[in-house]
Amino acid sequence: MKKRQLTSIIPASLAVIGAVVLLFWTSWAPSDQFALREPGQDGTPETSGDTDPRELVAGDPILGPGIPASIPGQWVSFRGPGRDAICDAGVPLGRQWPSDGPPVLWQIEVEEGYASAAIADGRVFFLDYDRQELADTIRCLSLSDGQEIWRNSYPVQITPNHGITRTMPVVHNGTVITIGPRCHVAAWEAETGQNLWLFSMVQRYGSQERQWYTGQCPLVDEDRLILAPCGPDSLLVALDYRTGEEIWRTPNPRGWVKTHSSVMLAEFEGQRMYVYCGTGGTAGVAADDGTLLWDETSWTENFATSPSPLPLPDGRFLLSSGYGTVGAMWLQMEKNGDQMLARADGQLDRRDFNSEQHTPVFYKGHIFGIRKHRGGQFVCLDLQGNEVWNSGQDRFGHGPYLIADDLLLILGEDGELVAADATAEEYRPVWRTRVYDPGHEAWGPMAIASGLLIVRDMTRMTCLDLRRSAN
Q1: Helix-then-strand count for the chain, H and E
Q2: Would you call the peptide bond into 11 cis, given omega within 30 degrees of 0 as the criterion?
Q3: Spatial separation of the C-alpha atoms in residues 401 and 183, rounded to whole Å
């Protein structure tokens, strides 16, 4: 009898002890250790086809009190005017600030996500979401004070899945083009907010919505809008940015599905091309007529691909990711007669470099970027992939970065902004300031124009005045 009681008491006691230990550990451990990163495992389903019964039609612009700022400077698209994350506008930035950091011109609340701003003609454009109206909402703000000039929207139902918004618009010749989380592409008049055209890549090209929604940012090149819908017969397409009408399409013979990566422009041996990482590899497409110049299957998607191909000198590219054991890979272009080829040219171990979200920056013969391994150290690599320096105890998670006035501007995902000399000599921080305290998933790409830097975390967008004259 006593033995039976003892055997029943021991498991119960162990369960109680285990519960106490678990309670203590969960109360001590940082909450972000429990963030479930995989779609469908955080209480939200994987995305599916758009079943919104409302007609896909944009509304009329709603005007606000803001007016465009009389401030020059442009950051018109993903990674800036050169699509290289480098600002060479020549505006001197401050090298030192008071203890509370550079001036904050304005800060606004935004829907949760990572959608970032484009800047043109004293205006700030970004794609937000209106939960009450269930609508993607393009907003135009004044660069000087953040007051809303206009907004417009179209209906779409979205369930939060590690945020809602994702992408950055492109501004070209007075037109703003956006790609929404669920593959809607739209064009808007920059001055008035009037919608020019709108369609769904799912309906028009058979695109597949991916986990975490759409991460692709649009590219306009020589008056052509370049998209990677990756439909059954449309790997890439070129559209007239004014009308949305198709100019050419590239076949999709391998049946690749689109990733979160964006299309990059490159040139090799006099051939301009668009380079894109699909789920099954990388492809180069002729800029003039959409001919598939080459594709290769060495770099396949491992759970997700977000960074874009980084063009390097002599026909090389750096491809990178950060999921599982994936690191980075070199891709080398070759030309044999009239035929163009690309081949894998070595890999980098994830311990050397593995960027999960942002595309690295090539600057003055070196590669700069965040390495997910070791908690998000910032690193400088040479063109052979050898580490030149790292940021040591400064860790940035999945935060964004760009280069302006020979400074690396790096935003940690917790909201701390660090400026460091953009040099291969050593990691040399110049100043730092806390933009968000605390910050939460400050992952969205940054934008800068005339020394005014726009950053965001999950729910806030902020404009900082980094001009040296603001000291």
Answers
A1: 3, 34
A2: no
A3: 26
The residues facing 227 across adjacent strands are 237
Q: Enumerate residues 6+ apart whose C-beta is below 8 A from 307.
A: 261, 319, 320, 321, 355, 356, 357, 358, 359, 360
Q: What is the pLDDT of residue 374?
A: 86
- Per the DSSP assignment, residues forming a β-bridge with 276 are 283
| CB contact at 8 A, 403 and 366 | no
| Rounded Cα gap, residues 58 and 54, in angstroms | 11
For 305, phi and psi rounded to 5 degrees?
-125, 120
- For residues 459 and 268, give the distance between their C-alpha atoms in angstroms, rounded to a whole number: 41
Q: What is the pLDDT of residues 61-103, one digit of tens each?
A: 999 999 999 999 999 999 999 999 999 989 999 999 999 999 9
Measured CA to CA, the distance from residue 333 to residue 88 in angstroms comes to 28
Q: Which residues, in sequence order, are CB contacts of 449 under 8 Å at separation 6+?
A: 71, 72, 73, 74, 75, 87, 89, 119, 143
Q: Do the beta carbons of residue 212 and residue 196 sit within 8 Å?
A: no
In whole angstroms, what is the distance from residue 282 CA to residue 458 CA? 31
Spell out the domains of the chain, with CATH numbers in brackets: 54-470 (2.140.10.10)
Number of Cβ within 10 Å of residue 98's Cβ equals: 9
Q: Which of 389, 428, 391, 387 is nearest to 407 (CA)?
A: 428
CA triple 345-403-359, angle to 5 deg: 35
CA 384, CA 403: separation in Å to the nearest integer?
Answer: 22
Distance CA 377, CA 368 (A): 11
Q: How far apart are CA 454 and CA 446, in angstroms?
A: 6
Here the tokens at position 288 are: 């003039």
Record the pTM: 0.89
Pairing of strands 361-363, 264-268: unpaired
Structure tokens at 91: 């505006």
Alpha-carbon distance of 386 to 210, in angstroms, equals: 34
Contact between 448 and 433 under an 8 Å Cβ cutoff? The reply is no
Q: How far apart are CA 464 and CA 102, in angstroms?
A: 7
Using alpha carbons only, give the angle 344, 348, 350 rounded to the nearest 5 degrees.
130
460, burial (CB in 10 Å: exposed 0-12, middle 13-18, buried 19+)? middle
The low-confidence residues of the chain, meaning pLDDT below 70, are 1-50, 470-471
